[in-house]
Design brief:
This protein has two domains: 87 residues, 3-Layer(aba) Sandwich (Peroxisomal Thiolase, Chain A, domain 1), CATH 3.40.47.10; 81 residues, 3-Layer(aba) Sandwich (Peroxisomal Thiolase, Chain A, domain 1), CATH 3.40.47.10. 27% of the residues lie in helices and 12% in strands. It contains five helices and five strands. It has a three-stranded mixed sheet, sandwiched between helices. Helix 1 crosses helix 2.
């Protein structure tokens, strides 16, 4: 695996609720802090190591300034670790790892947003390729995530089955409002 600065240790996300529902009054930094703490517990990472927290949060009204920083500090990370909040519509919760030189045949599992049906056709049109490799946990329309959660739902919906099934290379795609799109190419390194 090529050297890279970005690593996903364990794919976790905050709860999803419906608009005006039970999680409506909870600021994003609260569940975010629990998420940071859980990531530290699962991964065994040293919170004193050089790192940066990147936290997706779309509608920040009522969240105070930089929810990522609040989540990092309240989740157990020291003040020396920087944090930034990403507000990029549905792309806010997706980490993209660009890998040059991949061909469609290198992708072993794909989580494809329904807006990108042409990608599904390109991946499954090759001889010997099956539709079974695409969106095995259901897509964004099936899950109905709230605004800004498509990236987190898409990423977790790809990474967990990759880990479960021993899949090494994957593709996650999503539309992120305003005619934009984003894709990630996660590669597992269990070595």
């Amino acid at each position: 695996m090529p050297d890279c600065a970005d690593v996903l240790c364990h794919c976790v996300r905050t709860p999803i609720g419906r608009s005006g529902g039970s999680v409506n009054a909870i600021a994003a930094s609260g569940p975010g802090a629990r998420l940071v703490g859980e990531e530290l517990r699962r991964s065994g990472l040293d919170p004193e190591k050089d790192a940066t927290v990147v936290f997706g949060n779309v509608i920040q009204a009522g969240s105070a300034m930089n929810p990522a920083r609040q989540a990092a500090l309240n989740g157990g990370l020291p003040a020396s670790i920087p944090a930034m909040t990403v507000t990029r519509a549905s792309g806010s919760g997706a980490e993209a790892f660009d890998r040059a030189g991949w061909a469609a045949g290198d992708v072993e599992r794909a989580g494809i947003n329904e807006a990108f049906a042409a990608i599904t056709l390109a991946l499954t049109d090759e001889p010997g390729r099956s539709e079974d490799l695409v969106t095995v946990e259901g897509g964004a329309i099936a899950h109905g995530p709230p605004i800004g959660a498509t990236g987190a739902v898409g990423a977790t919906g790809l990474l967990h089955p990759m880990a479960r099934d021993g899949i090494r290379r994957g593709l996650v795609t999503l539309c992120i409002a305003g005619g934009q799109g984003i894709a990630g190419l996660p590669e597992r390194d269990d070595g």
